[in-house]
Amino acid sequence: MATLIGAIATSHTPTIGFAQDAARRDDPAWKPIFKAYAPVKAWLDANRPDVLLVVYNDHVTSFFFDHYSPFALGIGSSYAPADEGGGPRRLPPVAGHVELAAHVGRCMVAEEFDLSFFQDKPLDHGVFSPLSAMWPCENGWPGAIVPLQLGVLQCPVPTPRRCFRFGQALRRAIDSFPADLRVALIATGGLSHQVHGERCGFNNPAWDHEFLDRFESDPESLLDVTLAEFARRGGYESAEVVMWLLVRGALAKRLRRIHRAYCLPSMTAIATAIYEEEPEPQAVPLDKVAYLAQSHHQTAGLEQLAGTYPFTLEASVRAYRLNRFLHQLIDPAFRTRFAADPQACYADAGLSDEERRLVDGRDWIGMIRYGVIFFLLEKLGAMQGISNLHIYAAMRGETLETFMQTRNAPGALYSVAGDSTAIEELGKKHEE
Ligand code: FE2
After folding, report:
1. What total of structural domains would you count in the chain?
2. Of the candidates 208, 201, 225, which has an alpha carbon nearest to the alpha carbon of residue 260?
3. Active site residue 125
4. What are the 10-residue block averages of pLDDT along the chain, 432 residues in total?
5. Residue 63 belongs to domain with CATH number
6. Cα–Cα–Cα angle for 23, 29, 32, nearest 5°?
7. Residue of 67, 193, 296, 297 marked active site
8. Which of 15, 127, 129, 361 makes a 20 to 30 Å CA pair with 140?
9. CA 67 to chain centre
10. Is 193 a catalytic residue?
11. 186 and 335 inside one domain
12. What does the alpha-carbon distance between residue 43 and residue 182 come to, in Å, rounded to a whole number?
């Protein structure tokens, strides 16, 4: 079973990464940052977590307002540092822990915390600023991460209480993960700062220290603080400390503080802290067997349906490259390129030999078995005048005629193409 070994709480300001990359270790302004991270580094080195579950927010880098979610869980197998305008930092990509992420995703939805899920997105300073300061990566990162992105930039944002409860459920998810794994939680963001408007440059060390005290010993007293109150006391952007409250919800009532530091070199108050848990003799242990069964309750039985291929988080990650390739078919320019030179398109997308064979052979059932979702097959059909009915018949291993006889509208051929002329012609021919 997985073990939660403790939590680190840290700011994620870009200055941390900047000071690190610019080798400003001895610069008096930046020195306190490195001093603050030294115990964090030592704790990670001594406790050797396999996975860091990092609660962070993106800064309009990989998540934009065309689709903005309150809670987005990273399920991918690798995360590169993002280009935030001036090129990405020279850090290696960090591995994602797909199995833990999928398990957490399943458990959270079973707990009625509906999430969005992402992969193939680079991570910005929200993750890599603190990560590079506390986990040495010269020879590759020491472990994997599971990033959890909170949409805190566009109001409304999740309330502190919602975040805390999310954390409580997250803890049950981690505790019930069946494999042996050492997991540490990382809360990022804050503390006091405001980076926009005439009020930019606002800080409030007194509030920061009060927040740190209450976070540690009386977190529930922070759950009714409004976004406006966080903004008033700590600066507008400091309201991202709801991410700390999420992590606090996952931890025991009583904590042992291993480390706490605070400095204010520039715009953002930088706090770093390490917490381990005090035993809770009264706590009712989680019935992990029942909890796991509950997390699979909605999908239990699907595996017995012959000819059915559930599109799970694991399938989504496994077949991502091929699904992504086919998704490009919504772009007319790609369709033109693909029709003219499919081999070049396969090469551009880095498709494997098997993936090329599946697409090239229009092996509809092969693609389904591989993990392609049906709704991309109908796009591939639509681009070349193949109707959905052709695809259905092929998946069943039947002729079109045989399959059409099972339908109430035996002459109806259709596809998702906007121009249905080609399909209508086909349908007419079929009826003749
Ligand atoms: Fe931030």
Report:
1. 2
2. 208
3. yes
4. 97 90 84 94 98 98 98 98 96 98 98 97 98 95 98 97 98 97 97 96 98 98 97 96 98 98 95 96 91 96 97 97 98 98 98 98 98 98 94 98 93 88 72 63
5. 3.40.830.10
6. 85
7. 193
8. 15
9. 14
10. yes
11. no
12. 13
